[in-house]
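Hi F.,

I've been meaning to write this up properly since the lab meeting, where we talked about keeping a consistent format for the predictions we share between groups. The idea is simple: the sequence comes first, exactly as it goes in, then the structure tokens exactly as they come out, then a line or two of notes. No screenshots and no reformatting. I'm using this chain as the first example so we have something concrete to point to.
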Amino acid sequence: MKKSLLALAAGTFALGVCTGVPLLVMIADMTVANVLGVPVGTYVSHTFSWRFTFMTVGIWALVLVWLIWRHIPVMEPLPDTGLLGQFRFFRHLAPWLILFATALGNGGAFCWFSYVNPLMTRVSGFTSSDMMLLMMLAGLGMLACNLAGGRLSDRFGPGKVAFSSQGIMCLALLSIFFLAANPILSVLLMVICTTCLFTVSSPQQLLLIRHAKGGEMLGAASVQIAFNLGNDLGAWSGGLPVEAGYSHEYTALPASFFAFIGFGLLLYFWRRYEYPIRHLRTTSYFRKTA
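Output, unedited:
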């Protein structure tokens, strides 16, 4: 379903129907699921039975099919560029920069987040019963900044928002390594990291669709593939120091390394592809008003 919504978003963007905020609202479904669906599903499963959770999901899926059929209008198809034409955008550097930044930058976050439960309980001193509230705080940060990412991208440009968020996340991950023993700072840094993770994700999706001319749907799918690869790479890399016998705050070291690489790639992308255009527009504006 998420891939279908991304394909729809890619189509509307390519046809000029929406940009920025509307496009990113369409792909904010995963964050809503994190904030609402996960705790509700967990509560229902523990209180009644896991069968009720599956039954609810099935019923809601049928309702969703009806809502899509009833309310989403018929759209003009994208231009047919042929099978090979869908892949032409891969000949350019820009989409590769975005894909590698997505895989490595987001992978850095999952280096740490995959082990956030033992980090919070064994290092920061929280109990297992505290984790549901902490995960809800993390989810609220994801939701708020996924939506904020659209407005920031419209105002400052998605490239600038992406590399800035990635840089902040890198610093926060590095701080976790040194400050995880402090419970208050540990929670604050956790929220900062999850906030930056989903602030940077939305502009990345927007940028790849923008730089996938003729293959917008493939571009929308590619960024999700890169995100999933980063998830796997991060979880595996974060487990290496734990397997070697180090404490769980050491997961933040490879995490900050990957996040720094993602920051560098996004900064280079912004300097090469976005900054010259916005600088030219600003210069032209002041010349007209002079």
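Notes:
Residues 282-290 have pLDDT under 50 and may be disordered.
The chain has one domain: 2-71+89-289.

If this format works for you, I'll send the rest the same way.

G.
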